[in-house]
Design a protein that fits this description.
P2CMN_synthase_LarB, globular, alpha/beta, PurE_dom, 2 domains, hydrolase activity, 11 helices, 1-(5-phosphoribosyl)-5-amino-4-imidazole-carboxyl ate carboxylase, five-stranded parallel sheet, four-stranded mixed sheet
């Protein structure tokens, strides 16, 4: 993370040496961009290590477009979650250099342009129906500069599928486990690895699943230690937490 005091000193020195105009310095020191309907936090990367992320659900395509324009104007990495395909088409027509991942409903800076970390996160998904949440987690981590290995459709009803990849999972620095139904996969993984596990319950399941509430409660009551539970369908949160942990490991 950039030290704000050092940033300020550098900007003032550039102004003093006439390498930077006063107007450019004021632009760099501006903490947010007021768009009327939103105030875009331009210093979040200095405080938290990553720029403001756009939550697309409930925003119009035009609003998402304006926010992306603001972030791009300030050289920020773009990550917009929960963006429908129709909104994405509007946005990409105006920002064709960005990528849209339909399964995860994410618009972002192209993954291939981002240098990945040395440590990697394991994104583990119980079933195909959980893939949208798993991909939201995986892409969030990748946009934040984290190397990811995906282990999909390895739920407990066919536990041998998980064991085939268990050494690669053990060699990761953090696991994100995405599961619906009874959510048992997170306890199984936690009992097999020596690193933190982030469990994400999904709203996938029949009747008494209660849109993910039973999965959430099952994960919260899991017997294996080392598990932290995210909110229902919160792939973004799991990916973000995994990225923060790995960034801490890779600090100089």
């Amino acid at each position: 993370m950039t030290d704000k005091t050092n940033d300020l000193d550098a900007i003032l020195q550039q102004v003093q040496s006439k390498q930077l105009s006063i107007n450019d310095a004021k632009s760099q020191l501006k903490q947010f961009d007021d768009l009327g309907f939103a105030k875009i936090d331009l210093h979040r990367s200095q405080r938290q290590g990553f720029p403001e992320i756009i939550y697309g659900d409930g925003k119009s395509a035009e609003q998402i477009d304006d926010i992306i324009h603001s972030l791009k104007s300030n050289d920020q990495t773009i990550l917009a979650t929960r963006v429908s395909e129709s909104k994405a088409q509007y946005v990409l027509a105006r920002h064709p250099e960005l990528s849209y991942h339909a399964q995860a409903n994410i618009i972002c800076t192209p993954i291939e342009t981002i240098t990945p970390s040395t440590h990697y996160a394991a994104i583990i998904c119980a079933g195909t129906s959980d893939l949208p949440v798993a991909e939201e987690a995986a892409l969030t981590a990748e946009v934040m500069g984290i190397a990811v290995k995906r282990f999909y459709d390895v739920g407990v009803s066919g536990i041998h599928r998980l064991f085939e990849s268990i050494e690669d999972i053990r060699n990761s620095s953090v696991s994100v486990v995405v599961a619906g139904m009874e959510g048992a996969l997170s306890s199984v993984v936690s009992g097999l690895v020596d690193h933190p596990v982030y469990a994400i319950p999904t709203s996938v399941g029949y009747g008494a699943n209660l849109s993910g509430v039973t999965t959430l409660l099952a994960m919260l009551n899991g017997c294996a230690p080392g598990t932290s539970v995210l909110n229902i369908d919160n792939g973004f949160g799991g990916g973000y937490n995994a990225a923060q942990l790995i960034k801490m490991l890779e600090k100089d």
